[in-house]
Design goal:
By secondary structure, the protein is α+β, with helices and mostly antiparallel strands. The protein has 3 domains: 4-184, 4-Layer Sandwich (Glutamine Phosphoribosylpyrophosphate, subunit 1, domain 1), CATH 3.60.20; 194-332 and 447-516, HUPs (Rossmann fold), CATH 3.40.50; 335-443, no CATH class. The protein is 42% helix and 13% strand. It contains 23 helices and 17 strands. The chain has helices at residues 63-76, 126-132, 139-147, 152-155, 194-213, 229-236, 254-269, 305-317, 329-333, 339-345, 349-362, 367-378, 382-392, 418-432, 442-466, 479-486, 490-493, 501-506, 513-516, 525-544, 547-550, 556-567, 574-593, and strands at 4-9, 23-25, 32-35, 43-47, 51-57, 89-95, 98-102, 112-115, 119-123, 165-166, 171-175, 180-184, 218-222, 243-249, 273-277, 322-324, 471-473. The two termini are 20 Å apart. One of its GO terms (biological process) is asparagine biosynthetic process. It comes from Paenactinomyces guangxiensis. Its EC number is 6.3.5.4.
Length: 614
Amino acid sequence: MRFIYGCFPRQLNNFSIPVPLDTSQVWENTPLYYSNHWTKEELQVFESPQLQAFIVGTNITTKEEQESIFMEYQETGNIAVFNRWKGNDQIFLYHNNSLLLIPDLLGLYPIYFIHLPEYTVFSSRQTILSCLFNKQVDMNQLLISLLCSSITEFKLRKSIFQNIQSIPPCQALLLTKSKNEYKMVWRDDSTMPLVEGAANFRNALLDTVQRRVEKKSHVSLDISGGLDSTPLAILASKNPHLMRSGITYQSESEHEWEDGAIAKEICETYGIDSTFVSTDEAPSPYEKLAQAPLTDEPIPFLHMYAKILYGLKIMKSKGSELHLTGDSGDNVLNANGHYIVDLLNLKSLNQFTQHLYARSRLRNHSPFKMLKEAVTLRFQDYPHWVKKQAKSILRPISTHPIISGWSGNIGRFSWISQEQKATIAKQLEEWAQKAIPYSKVRSIHSDLVHLHWNARLARSLSQLGDSINLRVQFPYLDTLIVRTCLHIRAEERANPYEFKPLMKRAFQKELPQSLLQRNTKGDYTFDLYKGVQKQFSQLKELLLDMELVQFGIIEKDTWMDICKRFEMGVSIPLWEFNLTLAYECWLRSIKKSDLLWEEVIFDENCIPCKLYRN
């Protein structure tokens, strides 16, 4: 397990802290430690007469670029300079008797902490802090994490363990002897047109891929045949000395067979050693749930984890040192539908009308209903929108709004008890009084929130890779890529008349004609319903005796009714069902592992075997 652990003392008197086993100290007189499972390339130390920094993660920002950023921060104190950072890193910066904790921008590599009377202790893994300081699962925060999964700016303030807090994405935490203070890292830039943005995006994506693979001898890639994974395969192939392996999952869906044909063409054209995995060969959805590795938090895609891990193991067996995936490309390349409200704010009535009508036709929605939602959102500031979400928790939700609001919407968890919902609604309403958006631009705030959820998915996938010692990275979540794309005009990125115009403009010379002409994305829901029919007999034991029922979080009768409907192939809130299943399995894994006991050995888990140093 890869993690960072340390503390910042607020008093001069001596004290002792528990330190995990199998760790090394960064500096002799500084209580900062790293586990010995990191590679040398993932750790960097920057030192100058005025500051010290420990950098952990992808580490693709060069020494010269680091020095420029650190020196500017030292001179100006402007934390926004870290928006120029490349890749995905955690930064632990010691300067003027203070410590600045900076997670990567989207929270792919988060930082958790506990405030104690004498010091603040922190770690990159919440399970490390829960073990060392005997912190149990916080059921209230677990429920917030489940029910408000899409409102990431609300749920990511705290860990799902008691008294452990989390530094929210887009922010940093400044620790001094007298106080602790959050600092907003994200800053808005001026927007640019698609033509200019496409050139910047192309250069940024080429740069981040080349930096990630330049010290590797063998990398692997997901090659789905789609517009996100294909450019990564093309760019990785620009290094002639790099061995490349690709994996493609084939579906029984007719549309995905077209994707498979494109994937095969890409592999043959660029000399990629391809592996095609059929639905009969790979584990089916909902298979082996009880065997999932214990990760730092519930795996949102747990229903598909066995299939994904199966593919990663194939890539590892071929000698891959690094696996690149196109995950999160959708939300980076496109803009959330809330941009329509920005057009109304900017009084771009002609564009507003065109986009609203086109999007309503594409999605078979009433343009009048969309118009009503857009006008309503136009006069709702962020705190009022949050209060509205708090009220909606207690109402039955059959469908989500057509236009997403400032953030994601409350899930359709009809099986969560009204008593529990009322508790969370009250907390959300209280938080609304002090809620501040990440950006003054609605669509940028909304895009960032959705990307925070993508980073959550990526964290779980990265930890699955760690369980077999294969690094998994996500170029589209690179800080520079995100900043470049989010400052391209949203109405041009999300053009309803063209599918992913940014990617097509940036790589129009390399992409196959079939991809340039594509205007749709694949749908794998068919595989899920087939998988649950195949695995339902094994799921029954899990579904009948739920930890979440025993804790009073979900109502058993309502939950069982949903399960019966799913077994029969009747439509249910599938996303919410899968997430509930993931939380249930994670709770069982925590209980089964005796995680909070000293020196317990866990086989094939993402949690270290021993945690305490005497």
